[in-house]
Amino acid sequence: xxxxxxxxxxxxxxxxxxxxxxxxxxxxxxxxxxxxxxxxxxxxxxxxxxxxxxxxxxxxxxxxxxxxxxxxxxxxxxxxxxxxxxxxxxxxxxxxxxxxxxxxxxxxxxxxxxxxxxxxxxxxxxxxxxxxxxxxxxxxxxxxxxxxxxxxxxxxxxxxxxxxxxxxxxxxxxxxxxxxxxxxxxxxxxxxxxxxxxxxxxxxxxxxxxxxxxxxxxxxxxxxxxxxxxxxxxx
Length: 235
Known about the structure:
Radius of gyration: 28 Å
Organism: Cupriavidus malaysiensis
Keywords: Signal
Largest sheet: 5 strands, antiparallel
Strand order of the largest sheet: 4-5-3-6-8
Number of helices: 3
InterPro entries: 26kDa_periplasmic_antigen, SIMPL/DUF541
Pfam family, one: SIMPL
Number of strands: 9
Signal peptide: 1-19
Order of helices and strands: EEEHEEHEHEEE
Strand content: over 45%
Structural class: alpha+beta
């Protein structure tokens, strides 16, 4: 697991002017001297453990009611079959019906589209299921993400690293400005969550009768924790 720790000064400026000649607050009181703002990051790449797969079917005809009924029945059948697969969650996705027109603007047909969304942490199970459902609905996109448990576990490890980096940077920077130590004025912790890879899009294919599994292989998501705040540098 690749880990990266970086600390960045915000502004890299310490207010070290004497009180009588330094900046003044709105209240008319001198601003504190020797105040430094900075931040530190800790990041790691975590393997994604959840897959979200969108299946879709389209149908065209002259009667919108018939199209709606047929697509609804197909979506419900796919959801029922998916729910019989252990470890796979299924729910309805998008559902649209719209007219197509000729060059004179008259409606000459209707086209409908129904989607079903599958979600699972069992990549092998959802891969096999998608192959079995290929004659009813085809894969349109696949996206991977981190479960809440995986993200929180990564963040817990990163907090210690980010805090340590913040303290080291504060001490080193205080010395560069001629100070011997520092005290923390205020600090905040931002758990940035995970940066996910882009969903993989699939072109619609003709219906097939085989049940070949759909390739499902996740990547990694970057989880970042940031510690930022201000410190009072001390002589």
